[in-house]
Specification:
about 40% helix; rod-shaped; single chain; alpha+beta; Ribosomal Protein L30, Chain: A; 3-stranded antiparallel sheet
């Protein structure tokens, strides 16, 4: 048994690099047909905003053509944008929300 030598090798532990998920912007696009009160109601219902915050975002989109509503992970952003757009379609309005990557 004296001739057998045991070699010890260090155990290599690799740490996976965890990255935060890429964030996406939900953007409200202005149109000239959807009533302002309806847009505010959708912002309150889907994005859980106050009346005042919803009005400010709606007015900004009206004046500038579009406005960022919220920034969140991709799946949440796409779900909220689709839900809000679908509410507009159900009511017969061309209300449009999009989700795009944040720079």
């Amino acid at each position: 048994m004296a001739g057998n030598s045991t070699q010890l090798t260090p155990k290599v532990v690799t740490k996976p690099k965890v990255e935060r998920p890429r964030l996406y912007k939900v953007i409200l696009l202005n149109d000239d047909y959807t009533p302002r009160d309806f847009v505010t109601m959708v912002l309150k219902a889907v994005f859980r905003m106050s009346e005042d915050a919803g009005r400010r975002i709606m007015i900004t989109a009206h004046q500038k053509g579009s406005c960022v509503v919220t920034v969140c992970p991709r799946d949440v952003a796409e779900t909220k944008a689709k839900e809000a757009t679908d509410l507009g379609k159900e009511a017969g309005f061309p209300l449009m929300f999009t989700a795009e990557p944040e720079e």
